[in-house]
Batch of 4 targets.
Target 1
Amino acid sequence: MDALFLNQLFNGASLASLYLLAALGLALSFGLMRVINMAHGEMLMLGGYLAWMTLLVVPGAMGIILAIPVAFIGAAAMGGFIQSTLIRHLSARPLDTLLATWGVSLILQQGARDLFGAIGVEVRAPEWLTGSFVAFGVTLPSARLFIIAIAALVLGALALLLLKTRIGLLVRAVNQDRMMASASGIDVKRVDFTIFCLGSGVAGLAGVMLALLGPVTPNVGQSYIIPAFLVVVMGGLGSIVGTTASAIILGLFAALAQIFVDVSVAQMLLLMFVILFIQVRPQGVVAVKTRQLDA
Amino acid sequence: MLATSACALALASCSGGDKASAPAGDSVSVGVLQSLTGTMAISEITVKNAEMLAIEEINATGGVLGKQINALVEDGASDPSTFAQKASKLIESDKVATVFGGWTSASRKAMLPVFERTGNLLWYPVQFEGNECSPNIIYSGAQPNQQALPALEWAVKQGYKSFFLVGSDYVYPRTANLILKKHIEKGGMQVLGEAYVPLGGTDFSGVIAKIAQAKPAIIINTLNGDSNVAFFKQMQAAGISPKTMPVMSFSIGEQEAQAMGAGLVEGSYAAWNYFQSLTGDANAKFIAAYKAKFGKDAAITDPMVHGYLDVYAWKAAVEKAKSFQPDAVRKAAASLGGFATPMGTVSFAANQSLIQKAYIGKLKADGQFEIIADSGQDIVPEPYDQLAFPGKTCKL
C-alpha cells in the first residue's frame, strides 16, 4: 500500500504538470480577454504533430529537445492567426467567441485527419527518456520526470515574465483594469495578441509532452480540454498562482482516487469534487482582486 | 424451422414489389458501417477496406443473383449512438439489403434495436463477450469460448497462475473479464487486480502502479483502440516490458501492432481465430489481393478476414435463399455448410455464430505473429458461458 501510495503521489505530480501546461494558456487568455477558447485543445494536438514532424527530420536523441521550441513557435503562430483573424473581432461577445472557437476546433481536427490520417501517429521517445529510476521502492519513469521538470521551467519562466518584465507589467495592468490601461496609453490589443500567442505556445509545448505518453491523434486535445477548463475554473479565473495550485490539487486528487477506484470512477469523483469546491468557494482557489466595476 | 424458411422463401419470390426482397434495377445496396474516425479508427478502417475488397471481387465476377453490389460506406465515428443513427439511415432511407460493420460491443448493442425493429440483418466481424443472441445479427467473430477461454487455458498450461485484468470501460471487457474470473476462480487460481480505463483514455499511470504492486504472472488486456498505444508506452516507461511480464491481448492484431510500432509490443501474446502468418493457398491469395489494392505494407488481421468472409457468406446465403430478404438470408446462412475462406473452411452454427479454431500467437519484431499454439479442432460457438450465465441459452 505504501509503495502504491508513493507511486500515485508521483503520478499525481506528473498529471498535475500536464494539467498545468494545458491550462496555463487558457487561464491567461480567459483572465485577460474573458475569451473561452474552445480550440485550445487543438493547440495541444498541433504541438504533438509538430513534435512528430520534427522527429521525422531530426530522428536522433536531441530531436525531442528541438521539438519543444518548434511546437511552441508553431502553436503560438496558429494561436496568433486565430486571435487576429477571429477572436479580436468578437472580443466583446463571449458566447459568439465560444461558438466560433468551437468551430475552429472542429476545422483543425478535420484538417489534421485529412493531413495525417485518422489513425494517429506515434512519437518514439529517445533512449534517454524511455528508462526509469527506482527510489524508495517507487519506479519513476524518466519521461514523467522530464515532463515535471519542463512544467516547472515553464511556470518559472512565465512568473519571471509576468513579474519582472515590461510586458508582464502591461499584462498585469490590462488584467486589473482594461479601460484604465487603455486610457493610460497601453496598446491593449497588442497585449491581447501577445498573451494569446504565448498561451497557445505553452499548449503546443504541452502537446509535445503528451506525445511522450500516448498516441498523437486528431482528437487528442479533446481528452485534455475538459480537465484544463476544470483547472482554470477551480483556480480562480485568470490567476496563475490559483491555476498552479488547482492543477496540483486536481492532479493529486485524480491520481490518489485511482488507488481505490477505477479510472472511470476517479473521473466522476473529480468532477463531483470540483462542483462541491465551487459551491463552497465560487471565486476559486485564489480570488483575483480587480478594480473593474463589472468584475 | 425448415417449414418457416420455405415459407419465407415462397413469400419472397412471390412479393416481387417488396424493396428489401427484390431491389429494383440491376444493383443491390448494402451498408458498410465502421469507425473511420475517432479512437477505433486504428482498427476499423482496415475492416472497411476488407469488406470493400470482397464487394469489388464479387462485382467483378457477376455480382449476387445477377445484381451488382452498391456499397454505401458510413462512419460510425467510434461513438455508439452514431452507429445507431447511421444504421437507421442505411436501412430506412437507403433501403440497404443488409449491413456489414461494427467493432466495439457498445456499437453493436446500440445498433441491435435498430436491426430488430426494422428486421434487417447485421454481419458483425469482431470477437466479443457473448451473452447475446439476436436473430438479426450474424456473429462471425469469436464467442468467449473461441478466444478468451482458449487463451486462458493456454496461459494455465504455461504455468501462469495469477492474473491482472485491464480493459476499456465498456460492455466487452467487463463481461469478458467476468467470464474469465469465474473460470480462474474455479481453477483455484488468483485474480490479483482488475482495472478499467474509459475507451480512448490515455492515462495509465494508476493502472500501471497497481500492476507493479500486484506482480501478476500474466496481464490479460482487453483494451480497445489507440488506448493500447498509451498503455504499452507507459508500461515501457515504467520499466515493465512484455518480456518481463507477459501480456495477453484480445484486441491487438497485426494492424494495431504495425500502427503502434511493433517494437513497443514485441513479445506480447494474442489470441485470435486468424493470423496473417497462417499458411494455406486461400490465405496467400487473399493477402496478395489485399496488398495489391491497399499497398504492400498493409497488415491483415482477424476482424478484417471476418469482415471479408461475411460478405462472401452473405452472397452464398442470398444465392441459396434466392432472395435478399433478411429473414430468408439469415436462415440460409445458418444452414450453408462449409465454405472456403482465407482462414480455411468454416461454417455457421444454428446460433448464427461461426464454428472456428483458436490460435495463440507471439508478436515478433516485424509485426507478425508466430503461432505457438492452436485449439486443434474447430470450436463450436457458445454465446452463453455456463459458469457466468448459468441456464441461459440461445433462442432464435
Target 2
Amino acid sequence: MEFLQFFISGLSLGSIYAIIALGYTMVYGIAKMLNFAHGDVIMVGGYLVFTVSTSMGLPVWIGMTAAVVGCTALGVLIERFAYRPLRGATSLAVLITAIGVSYLLQNLALLIFGAAPKSFTSVVSVPALTLAGGALTITGESLVTIAACIVIMIVLTLFVNKTKPGRAMHAVSEDRGAAQLMGVNVNGTIALTFAIGSALAAIAGALLCSAYPTLTPYTGAMPGIKAFVAAVFGGIGSIPGAMIGGILLGLIESLSKAYISSEMADAIVFLVLIIVLVVKPTGIFGKKISEKV
Amino acid sequence: MFKKILSVLMVVAMVACLFTACGGNEDAGKTDATTFKIGAIGPTTGDAAIYGQAVMNAAQLAVDEINAAGGINGAQIEFKPADDEHNAEKSVNAYNDLKDWGMQILMGTVTSTPCIAVVEETHNDNMFMLTPSGSAVDCIRYDNAFRVCFSDPNQGLASADYIAAQKLGTKIAVIYNSSDAYSSGIYEKFMAEAKVKNLNVVAEGAFTADSNKDFTVQLQQAKSAGADLLFLPIYYQEASLILAQADKMGYDPAVFGVDGMDGILTVENFDTALAEGVMLLTPFAADAEDKLTQDFVTAYKAKYNEVPNQFAADAYDAIYIIKAAIEKSGATPDMSVSDLCNAIKGAMTQITVDGVTGLGMTWTADGEPNKAPKGMKIQNGAYVAM
C-alpha cells in the first residue's frame, strides 16, 4: 500500500513534468530551438492566476483564462521579438537569447511581485480520494493533473495529425525551406507553436502551483529543467515521448526518494537519463523523423 | 591627416583619464576621514532574496536612525549594500567592489555559504566583520569575525534539549535540506544530542535545493513510521510546503522548527491555520511586547510596509552592535582598516547590548553571542511565548 502511495506521488509529479515537456518538445520539433524561457512562462502563468483569482478575488476560471490568454500572448511576443530576428542565426545564438529571455522574465517578476514567496490557493476543487480505509490518499490535484495530462496529449496528437495547421507544423518540422516553397506560412506556423506551447505552460503553471503551493520568481526554473530532461528522455520532438518521458521521470524520482535515498533522487534520475541516451541517443520515442512534431 | 587627428585625440583622452583618476582619489581621501564606511553583502536578488532584502532594509533603517541622532562619536555612517545572489564567488566580488568604495567595516554576509568564502578575505585584510545571520560554524572562524545570530550547532543542541525537557514527542521525524550548510549543521548536532537525550528519531528525510517542491515521499515515510513530532531545521519557504502537503495527506504531527521557520506567517495568502501549533526556538518575535521591539517593528513597517522578520532584526541589531563597539573602543574614522578592526574586536568582548534579538547580549573572543533563545508557539495566527 505504501508502494502505491509513492507510485501515485510519482505519477502526479510526472504528469506535471509531462505537460511542461510537451511545450519544450513542440517548440523544438518545429523551430529546432531549445526554448529555455519555457519554465519561466510557467511562473508567469502562476502569477497571473494568483493575481486575478487570489489578489483580485475573481473566480478561478477567470484566473485560468487570464493566465492562458496572457501566457499565449507572452509566448507569441517572445517569439516575435526575441527569436524571429535570429531565425537565420546559429543555434548557439538562439540558445543564448533563450537563456537571456529566461533571466529577463525572472527578474521582471522579481521587480513586480517581489522576492517574498506567495502561498498559492489551489485551482482544483476536486476532493481527495481515499481508498483502502484511509491507507491510500489521492489528492484532488493529482487526479486533475493526471487527467489533464492525458486529455492534452490526445488533443495535441489529433490536432497535429488531423488539422491543416497541424499538418503545416509537420511540414515545417521536416523541411522548413520546402514547406515555404509549398506555400506554408512558416513564421505563422512557428508563432502558432509558441502560442500552443505557452498556453500549455499556463495550465502547467496553475497545476504545479496547486500541487506545490508556493510561488516565487524562480518557481518555474527547476521544473523547467526537469521537464526538458523529460523531453530529451522521451525523444525530443515527439509528443508521446514527452508524455512518457515526463511520467517516467516523476516515477523514478519519487521511487528512488522512497527506496534508495531522498538526497540521491536527482542523481539517480540523471544517471538513468545518461544510460538511456547511451543506449538510444535519440531518446525513447525519438527514432523516426516522421514522428517529429 | 586622419592618423594625426586620432593621435591628438588619444593624447587628450589619456590626459583626461589621468585627471579624473586624481580627482577620484582626492574625494575618497576626504570622506574617509570624517565618516565610517560600513559595507553590507547579502542576496538582494535570487532565491534567498527575502533574507538579503530584509537585512539591507533594516540596516539602512538603523543607519538612518544613528545618523539622525548624531552618528557614532559624532561621525556619520556611510552605508552601502551589495548583492551576492547567495553565491560564494559573487560574494567575494561584491567584497572587492566594496573595498574599492573604501569600506572599513563589513556587516555581512547574510547567508552562510558565501560568508565562509568572504571571511577568508576579511581575515587576509584584517577587516572587522559582523555577520547578522551567517550561522554556520566556519562563518566566523577567524578572530576578526563575529555574529549576531546563534550558530547552527547551538540551535540543534537547544532544540534537542528543549524537546527532551518538554517531552514534546515520543517518535520524532526530521526533514532537512542536505544541500544547505545551515540546515545540515543544525541537523547533525540535533542528531548527536538526540542520542545523548535518548530521543527516539524514527525517520530522517533529506532533500536538496533542486528537489524542494515535493515532500510527499518524506512525509509518507514519517507517517508510516508513526512519528508524532516533526522536526524541521529548514527555512519557512519549504516548511510552508511541507505543512500544506502533510495536511493534504491527512497527517497531523506536532511540528518543531528553528529560527528559519520565522516568516512563515508573513507568506502572502498562506493559510495560517496550517501553522497552528507550530513551535519554534527563535530570538526575535515581531509581536513581542517590549518597547525596543515595538519601536523597531513600527519604524520598519512605516518605512517598508511589511513586518520585519528575524533577519531584519539581526541586521538592525548588527548596526547598533557595531556602534556600541566603536564607542567603547573610541575608534575614529581616520584609522586604517586594520587598526579599526583591532580596536573593535577588542571592544566586542567587553560590551553588553540590549537589542531586538535579545537583552544583555555579550560576545566571546571566538565571535559567538551569548543570548537565550525563546520558545514560541503559533496560536491563532500569532506567536505566543511558550
Target 3
Amino acid sequence: MDAIILQILNGLDKGSAYALIALGLTLIFGTLGVVNFAHGALFMIGAFCAVTLTKFMTWEVATGEVQKTAWGSEVPVTKPLFESWFGPEVGGALIDWSVPLAILFSIPIMIIIGFVMERGLIKHFYKRPHADQILVTFGLAIVLQEIIKAFYGANPIPTPAPAAFKGSFDFGAMLGFDPNVIIYPYWRMVYFAFAAVVIGAVFAFLQFTTFGMVVRAGMADRETVGLLGINIDKRFTIMFGLAAAVAGLAGVMYAPINSPNYHMGMDFLVLSFVVVVVGGMGSLPGAVAAGFLLGILESFASMNQIKSLLPGIDQIIIYLVAIIILLTRPRGLMGKKGVMED
Amino acid sequence: MTKSNLTRRGVLKTGAVAGAGVALPTIFTASSAAAYTNEPTGSSVTLGFNVPQTGPYADEGADELRAFELAVEHLNGGGDGGMMNTFSSKALKGNGILGKKVEYVTGDTQTKSDAARASAKSMIEKDGAVMISGGSSSGVAIAVQGLCQEAGVIFMAGLTHSNDTTGKDKKANGFRHFFNGYMSGAALAPVLANAYGTDRKAYHLTADYTWGWTQQESIAAATEALGWETVNNVLTPLAATDFSSYIAPVLNSGADVLVLNHYGGNMVNSLTNAVQFGLRDKIVNGKQFEIVVPLYSRLMARGAGENVKGILGSTNWHWSLQDEGSQAFVKSFGTKYGFPPSQAAHTCYVQTLLYADAVERAGTFNPCGVAEALEGYEFDGLGNGPTLYRAEDHQCFKDVLVVRGKENPTSEFDVLEVVEVTPRAQVEYAPDHPMFAGGNLGTCNPGA
Amino acid sequence: MLGLNKKDTTLLIIVAALTLLAPFILNPFPTESGLAQFNAGYPDLMQRFVIFGIFAIGFNILFGLTGYLSFGHAAFLGVGSYSAVWMFKLLSMNVIPAIILAVIISGLFAVLIGYVSLRRSGIYFSILTLAFAQMSFNLAYSVLTPITNGETGLQLTLEDPRVLGQSATADGSIPVTNLFGAEMRSTYEMAVGPWAFQFNMGYYLCAIIMLVSFYLAIRIFRSPFGMMLRAIKSNQTRMSYTGLNPRPYTLAAFVISGMYAGLAGGLMASMDPLAGAERMQWTASGEVVLMTILGGAGTLIGPVLGAGFIKYFENIFSKINDNILHGWFAFMPDGLEDFVVTILHPFIGKGWHLTLGILFMLVVIFLPGGLVEGGQRIARLFRGKKSDDKSDEATQSTPAE
C-alpha cells in the first residue's frame, strides 16, 4: 500500500513535466498545425534560463587579493557578483532563490524566442508538408542545443533549489504509517503544484477570455474565423509565444530536480510526442491526462515487485501503453477526428 | 604499380617512384610488401585519437583530447616534457617516436559502438593511423578494441572501467591502463567497512548494461566478503533521467547504505535525486544512512554540485596527488590550459607515452613488437606508483585511489579529496578470476 | 532496357557509373595536399554511402509512395545486423547466408510490426512504429543482452562454433567475412601520380547490391503496384469507395521497405561484423527520415543523395580539428590565421552537429524539394530556359506528409 502511494506521488511528479511539455506541443499542433521538433529545445532553454541567472548572480568578481592554486598558477580571490552588490545577506538570499526568480526572468525571454521562431521560421512552413516541418524544426533544435553546448559545455550544471525547499516531507507519518515510509522531497511537491497552476491558468485563459475564445474558434475552423475579419495570424503568433513560455517554465522549475544539460530537450522530445499522441491530437485535456497517466504507469512499472515479475518492463512501459491505447482507441484518449490522420 | 594491402603511405612513395601507371586491377588478400598495417615509411607517424566529441561525454572527450595534444607536444620535444622527465624508462628523447615526428588525427566516437568503429576505421584506412586511443565508455572501448585486433593496429584504451575490457573481451592488440570494477570494489570495501562498520545492509541501483552489471557484481562481492549484506539490486534503464521511482522505495527496504552503480549523467541524476529525498539525513537500523558512488569522475561530480559532499568512491587518478609524476603532469597541463587535468586526461596522456616508449624499446611500430614490449612491463613515475602491464590480460596493476566529495571546495576543480591510496597488492587478482573468465586474448595481429 | 523507359535507363546508367567509379570521384584531392581531408574515397565511408543509400531507397518506397511516415525503420536495420552476425557466429563467414537471413528475419519482423501499425494512419501510425522500435532498442540494450550483447554490440569471438567454417584461423585470429573466399576487407590500391585510389572488395559487393535494389525500386515505382500506392497517398478514402482494400498494398510496401532495411543491416554487418544496439534507437530512425526528406522524398535518386550528404558530414567534418585548420590557413599572417581559425572553430570537429543542423534548415527552407530540386535548378541554369517547365518524372518531387 505504502509503496503504491509513493509511486503515485512519483507518477504525479513525472507526469507534471510530461503534461507541461505536451500541453505546449498541443497548443502548437492544435492552433498552428505544426509539428514542432524544437519544443524539447525550448524546455531545455527554459532550464538554462535558470542556469544563466544563477551563473550571473554568482559571477565571480575579483576582490583584489590573489591566491595560489594547488596546480601552481595564481588566481585572484573572488566573490559572487550579487554578494558584492547587495552584501552577503541580501545577495546570498537572492542567490539562494535564483531558481524561483528565474521564472520572472524566463517568461519574457521565452515569449520573445517563441515570437521570433514563429515569425522568422515557422510561419513559412504552415503550408508545407509535415515532413518538412519536422526537418526544419529538428535542424533548429540541433542548432539551439549546440549553441547552449558551446557556452555551457556538455556536462550537467548543478542548479540547486532554495535552501527552504531542501529535504523531504514525511507523508507516511501524516497518514498514520511508520515514519520514513512515505517521504517526498519538498521541491518535487512544489513542481507538481506549479504545474497544476500553469495548466489551470492556460485552460482558464482559453476558456474565459475573448482572446481564448477566438483562438479556440480558430482551432476549430481557421478560415471562417478569418472571414469574420479577425486577424487570427497575430493571435496564433501569441499562442506560439505562450506555448514557448509554458515549455520554458517547465524547464526552469525542472532545473533543481535534475541538473540541466544541453541534450535534456532531446531526452524529453520523443516521450512528449508519445504523450501528445496518446492523449489524442489537438486535445489539450487529452495531452494533460496522458501526461499524468503515463507518468504514473511508468512509476508503477519501476516497482521492484513488478520488475521481478516482468524484467525490463520499466524500459518499455510507456511505449507498450502507447501501443495498447492507440490500438483500442484509434485517436488516442481524446483525439479529434481528422487531425493529423493523413 | 605496387602491391599492397590497407596501407596507403607506403604505396604512395613507391607508386610515385615507379611513375604513374595504369595497372590491371588485381584483387588480393593478406601478405604483401608491407610488414604490418600502416607501417610508417616517411618522416612522420600518425596516431589516431578517437574521443567522444558530441553527446553526454563530450566534456570528458575534450579533456582527453587536450591530454593527447599535450602528449604529442612532449613526444616531439615541445613544452616542458611533463611526465617524460619522471617516467622510469628513459627511452623517449623528445625527438618523436623512433625519430619520426608524431602527427595525429582526431575523430568523434559519439559514445556509440557503431560511430566509434566508423571513426576508427577512417583513421586506419584513410589517415594511416598505426595506433588508436581514447574513448569514455566500456562499450565503445570493447568495440574499437575488436576492430583494432582485426585491422592489425594497437589499441590503447582510454577511460573504460568494465571488467570485460580486459576480461571476457580482452584482445591481444588492446591495452588498458585504467582500473576496473573489481579494483574499485577491492579498494573501496575496506574503507567502507572502516567508515561505516561491517554490519551494513546495502541497496544497489545499477545501470542496466554490461558495465553496470560488472561493477555491481564486483562491489557486492567485495563488500559481502567484509560482512555487508546486499538487500536488493535494482536495474535502472540507461535512458532514465529521473530516478525518483527507484529511490523512493529504498528507505522502506531496511537498507542503510545506497550504492549507485551509475556513471556520467545517470550518476549525477541518481545522486541528486537521492539527496533530494533526504536519504542522508535519515537514521536507519540505528545508523546514519550513507550513499556510495563506486566510480567517481571529477568532471561529472561537478554536475551534482553540493550533493557529492562526503560521499565515498574510487577513482583512477586525481590531480592533487603529490608524487613527482603527477605534479609534473598537472603543472604542464595547468600551464597550457589553465586548469587541472581529469582522470580521463591522465590515462590518455599516460597511454600515449607508454605506447611511444614501447615502440622505442621494441625498435619497431609493428604491433606484435609493441605488444611484446608492453607485456609484463614494470614502470614508475607516471602518477600511480610502480605499475605492471600484466602479460596475461593486458591490464595495468597499480595503486587505486579512494576519494570523498570535499566538504569545503576552494574551486570548481577541487571537488574530491583523496582518502586513501590503496596499495596495488590489495587490488590484484588472478588472470582466471571468475569475473574475468571466458575470454581469450588470441594472438597479436600485425595486419597486412 | 531491362523493361525501363529511356529516362529511367539513363538514370540507372548514371547511378551505376557514379557508384562504380566512386573510388575516383570521391578522391579528387592528392593524398598529401591539405584538401585531402575532404576525400571520402576510403572503403569504410564508401561502404556506408551505398549501404545507407539502400536503407533510404527502401524507406522511400514506403514514405515516398504511400506517404506513411515510419519513425521506427531503424529497428529493421538492427534486426538485420543481429541476424547477420549470428549467422557469422554459428554458420560461416560467408556473407551470402548472412545477408539472406537478415532480409528474411527483418521481413518477418516487418510483417508483424506493419500488420499492427497499419491499423492506424497519419501521426498515429508514426508513433506506433516509433514505439515498437524504441521497445526493441531498450530491450536489446538491457534485457536481451544474451542475444544482442547489449551496450558493446554483438561481436565475433574465437569461441564461436561456425559449423561450416573455422572458429579461428591458423594464426589464432577470428576469420574475416568473405564471399566464397574473397575477403570483404581486401583492398587494391592504385597510385596515379600524387593520387591514391582504393578499390575495396566489400564496397563493390555493396555497390552491386545497391544497383540491383535501385533497379527494383524503379520497377516498383513504375509498376501498377506503385500506382496503387500513390493512389493510397493521394486519397485513401476514394480508393476504398472503389472497392479496393488499401491495407494489403500498404502492408506489402511496408514489408518491402523493411526488407530493404534488413538488407542494409546485413550488409553493414558483413562489412564490419559488429551489431550495436544504437542502430535501432529513434535517432537512427530519424536519420533515415532526414536523409529521405533532405534528398527529396518521393524521388528515385533523392534518398541516396541525402544518405551520402549526412554520412559525409558525420565522417569528414567530425575529423577536422584546429590543427588541420591551422595547416590550411598557414599562408595567412599570424593574427589573421588565428582569427579565421577562431571563426571556423565552432563548426568543425565537435561542432559538426551544428553545421549539420544549419544545413538541414538551409536546405529545407530554400529547396523545398530537397537536394534533387537543387540539382534540377542547377541543371536548368545550364540547359537554359527551354526545358524549364518540362516535368521530369524520374526526379519529380512529390513531398509527402
Target 4
Amino acid sequence: MKTLRFLLEKEFKQMARHSFLPKLIVLFPTLMMCLLPWAANLEVKEIHLGVIDRDHSPLSNRLTHALEASGYFRLVAFPESFPRALEGVTSGATDVLLDIPPRFGEALERGEGTRVFIAPNSVNGTKGELAAVYLSAILKEFSVALRAASSPVSPAPAVEVATLHRFNARLAYKPFMVPALMVMLMMLLCGFLPALNIVGEKESGTIEQINVTPVGKFTFIAGKLIPYWLVGFAVLTYSFLLAWLFYDIVPVGRFGTIYLFALLFVFGIAGFGLIVSNHSATMQQAMFVMFFFIMIFVLMSGFFSPIKSMPGWARAIAAFNPLNYFVEVVRGVYLKGSGVGDMTRPLLALSSFAVIMNAWAVWSYRKSR
Amino acid sequence: MNVITTELLTKRFGTFTAVDRVTFEVRRGEIFGFLGANGAGKTTAMRILCGLSKPTSGKAIVAGHDVATHPDHVKRHIGYMSQKFSLYEDLKVWENIRLYAGIYGMRPAEIKAKSAILLRQLEFEDGRDKLVRSLPLGWKQKLAFSVAVFHEPRIVFLDEPTGGVDPVTRRQFWELIYQVADRGITVFVTTHYMDEAEYCDRVSIMVDGRVEVLDSPEQLKKRFRATSMEEVFRHLARGTTRS
C-alpha cells in the first residue's frame, strides 16, 4: 500500500503535466452538455403537411383547420392530385400527405363511414411515424366530436383513451437526454483514457522498468484506476452543475444515489479500458477496440432507442451492457426520483461488472511472458 | 560466491530457440560482460534473469531465488536498465528517483537524503528539477543507471546501456559502473562495443543462442591469439548461422 502512494503521485503528476488531458477533461463535458441536448432531440414539431382536398366541403375545411390548430403541423401545400402531391414529398418539401376523398363531408353528414389516406414520408422513420400518429390522433378526435354533435341523444359508446405521461408530463426531450449524456461522458473519459494509459507505457518502454520491480499486479492496476475514478467524479459533478445552469434540470431523487452507482460504473468501465490496454500492443489497436465496443455499448444502451423494442436476442445482449443499467439509473433518479431500493437489479449488475472487469484487468496484466 | 547460476537455460519462441541450453555462473561483485551479435539471444537471456520472461526449460537462480518460481523475490534484489532507459520523460529528475525508490520500499526521508547525495556525486544538482525529456541522452543514461542502483540491489542488469553516445560519455558511464562494482554490486552488462568488453572482469560471448566462451578478456585474447576483444569476437561471430 505504501507503494501505491508513489504510483498515484506519479499518475497525477503525469496527468497534470500532460499537454492535452486537463483541457480535454474540462472542454469535453462542456461541449457535450452544451451542444448535444439540442442535437439529440427527437421531438417532432413543424411537420410539413400537404392536404389533397378533393371534397371542398365545410367539413373537410374544418378538418384542415383542426390540423393546423394542433400546433404540430404547418400546411405547406394544397396539391390538386396525388401524383402532384408526391412530387412535394419527393423533393422533401412535404413530410406527410392527407388525402381527403370526394364526398367526404356528405358521407359523414349521412352518418356513413369514409376513408382518408395518410402518406408520411418515412425517409426519416421517426418523423414519418410520429407524423402519422399525430394525424390519426387528430382525425379520431375530429370524428368523435362530429359524432357527438350529430346525435346528442345517444352518443355512440366511444371508448376514449386518456393518456397521462408520468414523470415527464410534456414528454420533453432534454430531461430525458441530459442524464444519458452524463453517462456517455463518463464512459468516454473513464473508458478511453485508461485504455490509452498502459499501452502508452508499453510504447514508451517504461512498463518494462515497472515490471522488473517488485510492484504487485493489484497495486499497479489500483494505481491506474484510482486517478480515473476521481476524474469521473469530477466530471460527473461538473455535468450536474451544467445541467442545472443551462437546462434547469435537477434530479428528483438524490445526488448520492447517482454517485453511488457512478462509483461502480466508473470502476467497471475504467477496468474495461485497462483490459483493452493490457491486451493491446499499440495505441492504435487500443483505440480501435475501444471504438468498436463503445459503439455497441451506446447503440444497445437504450440511449436512443428503447431496449424493450429490440428483438429478443438483442435484449439478451443488452442485458450484459453496463451502460444500459447506468443510463436507467441516472434517468430514473433524475426523472422519477428512484432510490437504491428501486434499483437492485442495476446495482447487482453494475457491481458484478465492476468486480469482473477489474479481476480481469489484474489477471491480464502480465509482468512476464 | 555466485549471484547468478544458470543450468541448461532455454527459451523457445515456437520453433525458434532464442536461448539454447545456457549454463554459466556470475560471481559476486564482478563486472560481467554479456556479449553477442544482434539476435544471438543476449537480451532474451537477460530478460529471463530479470524475471521479465519465463524460461521454457532449465533453471536460473538469481540472488538466491529461482526466476521461474519466485520472480518477485528476484525482483526485490535486482536493478535493471533497458536499452530504452525507461525513465518517465514527463517527470522531473527528482520525481523519477522518488518514484522508483518508493516502489522498492524506501522511506520518503531516506529517499530525499540519498537523492541529494546522488545528485551531488553526479554533479547534477542543477538538473534536479528538470524534466527528463529535456536532458541530453548521455545524462538520461547516467540517471537511469543511478536510479537502477539507488535501492542498493545485489545485481544490476544493463542492456546496452551506452548506445548512441560519444566515447567520452561512454567512458564517464563506465566510471559509474566501476564505482557501483566497488560497492559490491554485481554488474551484468550487454554491449556491442568491444572496447567496453575490455573493461569487464569476465565476458561471455553468445553465438546462436549458446554461450560459446566465458573467461577474462586477457585469457580469451591469449586463447584466440588476438590482440583485442574485437578480434576474438569476429573470430567467434564467423561461426554464426543467424544473421
